[in-house]
Every structure is written in C-alpha cells, then in structure tokens.
Amino acid sequence: MSGHVKGCASVIQNLYPAALYVHCTNHSLNLAIATTCKIPAIRNCIGSMKETVNLFRMSTKADTLLKNLILESFPNSKQVRLLKFCETRWVEHLESLSLFNDLFPLICTALEELDTENLRSDLSKPHALLTAIQSPQFVIAMAILKPIFALSKHISLCLQQIDCDLSSCVAYANNLYAEISEMRKDSEQSFKLIFESVKTIAAELDLEIKIPRLAKRQTNRDNYEGEPEEYYRRSIYIPFLDHFLDQINERFLKHRELLSKIENILPNKCINLDVIEMQETVRVLEKQWSADVEDPDDFVSEFRMWKRNWLNQTKRSKTFLDALNCCDA
User: Fold this and answer.
1) pLDDT digits over 252-291, tens only?
2) N or C: which end of the chain has fewer CB within 10 A?
C-alpha cells in the first residue's frame, strides 16, 4: 500500500504529485501500541499472558479445570474460556487483557493444580507459567496495560467511524495525547492508584511485591533505588508512557500543522483569520505545494478582498432581515 516503488501511494503520487499521503490512522494507532509494548517488562508480560492463554485453550484438561473454577466462583458467567490475543490488532487486546486480569486468581489456582497433577503438554509447563505470572513485574505491568489499552480502544472505535476524516483523527489523537500527558505529568498520583490495585491482588494471592536484586553495575535491567512503588513507577510506568507519547506524536501529530493550515482556507475558518495568520498559512501551503502557490502576496491580497466582500454582504443581509422584522411587527 505505502511502498515507494509499486505501492498504491506511489502510483497515485506519480499521477498526482500534489496528493498528500497519510497512513491509515487506525493502523498507525496499532503500530504505536505495538512499538510501545516492546519495552522489556511490558513485552514479557504480554508474552507470558499469551503462553498461559494458549495452555488453557489447547489443553482440554487445563481448559476444563479453569472452566469449573470459573463456574464455581461465577455461576452465571457466560465467558468460561480465556480469549486469545489477536496477533495483528493490538488495540483488540483489551478484552483478552481484561478477562485475564479479572480471572487472574483463578488462573493461578488452576496452574497450581495442574502443576501438582504434573500436566504433560508440549506447551509451557504450568510451574514455569505460574512463576512468571506471579512475579511483581508481571502483576504491575498487567495493571499498567489495562487503563492504557482502554483509552486506545476508545480512540480506535472513533477512528473506524465512516464519517471520520483526517481532521477528526488528529483531534482524537490530540485527546489521547493530552490524556496520557496528564497521566505522565501526575505520574506519582496516577501510579499510586495502579499500585494500590496491585497490592490488593498481591494480598489475595499472598505475593510479595519487592524490587529485583540490585547490583553495583547493572546492564540488563534498571537499577533504581527506593521503595517498590517508586522503583516500578520509574522503571516501567514512566518509560511506557514516554514511549507511547513519542509514538503518538510521530505517527499522528506531525500532520497537525499542515492540516490546520489546510483547514484555514475553508470559508468558515478563513473568515476568522487575520492577515498574519493567513500569511503563515500561505507559507506552509507554498512549502507543500509550491507549484500551486505562485505568488504568496497575491494570495494574501485576494484573501483580504474576499473577506471584506463577505463582511459587506453579511452586513447587508443582516440589515435586510432587520427591515423585514420591523415590517412584520
């Protein structure tokens, strides 16, 4: 689609050089999330969840055991199987992640029983999975992912609307960027709420939330000092938010300036601009489409005359309507 030689975008731009190529916004969001989740702690968390889900979905014994535990705890539950993580659409991870998070204590119980019964499988062993998902890094990463995926899922639904144009896409991206920026700015308070939920899960499963062993010279992981809450906030939460903000800015907001200038030539926007704002608009358009903007000064002059004529017409229309109202009275 976007190949520079035979891709659809290159074919169209060869025929119409002034055409502006913009990547599919929903796909851009998908790529932004996928790239952000390559942070080691987040990547390992998602990998462990996928392996656990595959074990329960591909082993009849494991699936039946978890199903019985779910029905025992939630007799009216309609969802009795873990949902598989979509490999291509990362924004669809929310449902799988939410269900995994809600059933986390039952999943741990099922893995313990499977380990006791020495389940034989070609997949990952229950003991190895149980050790992985009961680590502090996993529990905290899972708690961090859920609110971020929830925000991304909402934006993804908006981007798939049939009446969503590029302006709306940038507006949605701006809203997501502002929301994540607010979480990053107030990271201590926002992470405190996440950490409280982690402590609740840890207390239920009798897990100890502690920091990894520190070394004088650490090369394979972060070596922050402090209490567990501060350590995981600085080593997982803040880097994850920073990466996500960078991806949103790179894949969405770089179109923001050009788009705003294009919108300025629409009548409902143009009428509210002053001469300086129009000159800035012309400079951006000249840079993008130099062949179409031959003389920027003529462009601005034409705009000033159009605006004056529009204001005069509006004024005459208002006077005419006022006169009609007086006659009716």
Assistant:
1) 766 666 666 666 776 767 777 777 777 777 777 777 676 6
2) C
Alpha carbon distance 71, 63 (integer Å) = 12
Please state, in angstroms and rounded to a whole number, the distance separating the CA atoms of residues 94 and 269. 38
N residues, the chain: 329
The amino acid occupying position 78 is: K
Beta-carbon contacts of 304 under 8 Å, excluding residues fewer than 6 positions away, are 275, 278
Q: Where are the domains of the chain?
A: 25-211+224-257, 264-328
Total Cβ atoms within 10 A of residue 239:
16
* The two three-digit tokens of residue 126, written as one number: 């229950």
| Rounded Cα distance, 114 and 58, in Å | 14
pLDDT tens across 118-151, in order? 776 666 788 889 999 999 999 999 999 988 888 8
CA 101 to chain centre: 19
